Please model this.
Amino acid sequence: MHRLLRTGDFWAGLAFAALGAWIVSQARQWVYLGEEGPGAGFFPMWYGIAMLVLSLVLVVGAARRQGEAGRPLREQWKGTGRALACWGALAVSVALLKLVGFIISFALLAWFITGVLCRKRALLSIGLSVAWAVFFWAVFSWGLDMSLPAGRFF
Amino acid sequence: MDIFSGLMHGFAVALTPGNLGMCVVGVLLGTIVGVLPGLGPPATIAMLLPLTFRMDPTGAMIMLAGIYYGAKYGGSTTSILLNIPGESASAATCFDGYQLARKGRAGPALGMAAIASFIAGTFGVVALMLVAPPLAKVSLAFSSPEYFGLMAMGLAMVVLLSGHSLVKGLLSMLLGLWVAGMGTDLFSATSRFTFGRAELLGGIDFVVVAIGIFAVGEVMANLEPTEPGAMLPVPKGLRNLMPTWQDMKDCRFAFLNGSVLGFIVGILPGAGSTIASFLSYGIEKAVSKHPEEFGKGAIEGVAAPEGANNAETAGALVPLLTLGIPGSGTTAMLLAALVLWGFKPGPLFIDESPALFWGLVASMYIGNVLLLLLNLPLVGVFAQLLKLPHYAMYPLILGVSIVGVYSNSSSVFDLGLLTLFGLVGYAMRKLDFPTAPMILGLVLGDNMEKALRQSLMMSQGDLSILVSRPISAGLLGVAVLLLVVPLFKRVNATRVQIIDQAEG
Model:
């Protein structure tokens, strides 16, 4: 059983099953068939049921293989630290937009990627992040007259 | 408008300085994207799509299509010099292209890839021009049930050929349908799956999902450590890039094989250029007088797949422009672009938007010539792109993604969604869920629901309308067959084998 818990298919199947069940529960609150034909709940009901059934097939398939055919989670997610750190940095950068604006938050994101994730020298990473920030401002804000997210301070 | 006058009108449109410039930018960007492994045309088109909203749609479409077919040219450079496909469509080129380069024939291999791409690409455009208008006329007879059947068949094909697991392909497609269904239901004004957020009442913008899944997800995946490949040198001088007369003679059938097969495969939804190039390679090897040389540096092994993946591009535009049915992630992106610019791809598209259709066709003739001219003398310059440090590219891609999404809606909420879908895209890659069915489900979801509900309104709720009309019954029958057939072990083994080969 514990091998099953280490397969991605098992967890993905459970996640889809939960989503499918939720879609069906939501669709039940809307009109399925009205006087003028199918209602808002008709289509979601069917794809929700399909999602639920297929996700259970995925879970059962993973259980039957007991993790033999599918790659173990540890192997599957090896090396994901940097990817998830990049995602975290992007999320923080987006959250900071309303506060510091695009130029500063993007420069911080670029610095994090080059300096921290790709381990480049401080001078190079700072220089590159400033250069990218200036490039984006020059091309999009100044050159193309597009509005970039503005912050409270910048 | 007949084909000849349509084409002349198209050249008048495509040869205006603005549109010619867009064509140059598109094919140049496409070549660059094709050369760089890890950055594909769907991600590039997704990122640039919001920036095209202020442009003239014809010029913008010419540019986006240029990226689409230009990437196929560029992909071969990486396959031949690095043994890593720049695009999945160029994976088959690795077999013989890299072996030729190792034998000191990188020049003729690169030259042959460009020449085969040009011949098959041009054949594809001629075929597109001849096939699309009559097909559009036939499809005028389609009503809602037929459209539902067509979309179901298209999605089934994409799911069938998108990955090892049919279940994962279907789940990915259903996820796309769910995201497409978010927002206010246009028939009843019911708000669905909005989580109480006013921002979601209008639904989630396709651009946000596409950029998140393709661009952000791709950056995240590329940040994982990988072994860098060793690049073989590019011969200097145009003369060293030209294949010999004997090479050209040896590739006569490969040109034909790649052109015809690539175009036919392109018309089929879901098959895509990777399958086209592998099928063409397989046929070339099967009919060759010296099959034992394949995999060891046969020049036909470069010409056939490179031709096929270029002819496929024009083939894929046939169902997109005449039926409004995309067959891959990239064509789904082009469909979304057309819809966002206010066009309605389908049976009336050629008659309603002749400047766009014929301008696009003419620009593809011009683009193929430009690509040949660019790729032969400048291949060495493009190869230098492979030396670009990746750490400098990631901020650029993320920055363009952020600016692209924000320029579309001026909403920081959408940027939050972009981040979320980036994570979804990355998780899908890690868990081997194909992304193309999700994007197709997202693009077709609304129309599919509309077609189904309109069909049932026509029949007052009777589902038999979908199977009582011959065309829709036939299309749905094919869709069901495509999804049932893999349940037979032998058929599924063949399906998985094709996908395995396509994935290299």
Observations:
- The mean pLDDT of chain A is 86.
- Chain A touches chain B through 63 residues (CB under 8 Å).
- Chain A is about 75% helix and 5% strand.
